[in-house]
Amino acid sequence: MNVIFDIGMVLIDFHFEDFVRKMFERDIAQKVIDAMWKSGDWGELDKGVLTDEQVLEMFISHAPECEKEIRTVFARLGECPRLREYTIPLIKDLKAKGHRVYYLSNYFSYLYHAAPWALDFIEFTDGGVFSFFENVTKPDKRIYRLLCRRFSLDPADCVFIDDTLRNVEAARELGMRGIHFTGQTPQQLKAEICR
Questions:
Q1: Domain membership of residue 157 as a residue range
Q2: Hey, which of 55, 81, 95, 122 would disulfide with 118, CB 3.0 to 4.6 Å?
């Protein structure tokens, strides 16, 4: 079987709102969160079509009075992700059981380069796809098809794990078995994958 993992909030932690709230007082923090995380523009980072500066300008347009804070948050984003301690052991265990392991992630270039340690698990996988390299994000079915094509995967032999339900539903529509990750323990997750 082919096991395909989302990365953020499945294999790594990325608690953006908590990260921002530790940096600024409450009202400013909320404005920054709303302008960056909740504006709907974050996906432009993951698509990798626009430059970082172009996306930053979009964020700033939602809260021009917080330009300095928005730029500070972006510059320090490499401090936000944390590799979960169960990630590498889980991947190794799945591989030892004969499964192939891949990743399929909406991810952006700046974070990829600013926090490489958060991706230390990659060397233990069989490969994967980052959205910013391909200029397409989940739940667009093109990115799932690209993964399958690149690694010669039959969707019927794949299980896909993601913390965003619409991404799981897109995988199911393509014939994969989907698992919605809602904080299951590694043991629970392994049981769901291997059932």
A1: 2-13+81-194
A2: 81
